[in-house]
Structure to design on (92 residues):
C-alpha cells in the first residue's frame, strides 16, 4: 500500500494558524485515483461474515433488545408503583 503525506495549504485569511481552521487540504485527480485504488485493495482483504453468521448475530441482538426492553419495562413499573406508594403513605 502506498503511503504519502496529505498536502496542506495555509489560508492567510485565518491568520495562518497551524492545524486550526486556516488550513485547506489540496489534492489532485491522481491522488484521488490512488486513494480509491488503495480502498479497493483494502476492501478485498476484508473478511466478510457469512449469511448464517449475520442471521444468527441479528437474532441474538433482537432477543437481547427484547429481553432488556421487557426488563426495563418491569423495573419502570416497579419504581412507578413504589413512588405512588410513598406518595400515598405521606398523603401527597
Amino acid at each position: 500500500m502506498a503511503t504519502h503525506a496529505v498536502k496542506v495549504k495555509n489560508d492567510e485569511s485565518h491568520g495562518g494558524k497551524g492545524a486550526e481552521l486556516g488550513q485547506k487540504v489540496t489534492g489532485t485527480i491522481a491522488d484521488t485515483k490512488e486513494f480509491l485504488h488503495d480502498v479497493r485493495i483494502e476492501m478485498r482483504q476484508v473478511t466478510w461474515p457469512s449469511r448464517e453468521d449475520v442471521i444468527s448475530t441479528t437474532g441474538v441482538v433482537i432477543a437481547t433488545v427484547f429481553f432488556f426492553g421487557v426488563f426495563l419495562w418491569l423495573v419502570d413499573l416497579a419504581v412507578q408503583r413504589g413512588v405512588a406508594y410513598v406518595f400515598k403513605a405521606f398523603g401527597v
About this structure: Residues 49-92 form one domain. Strands lie at 7-10, 23-26.
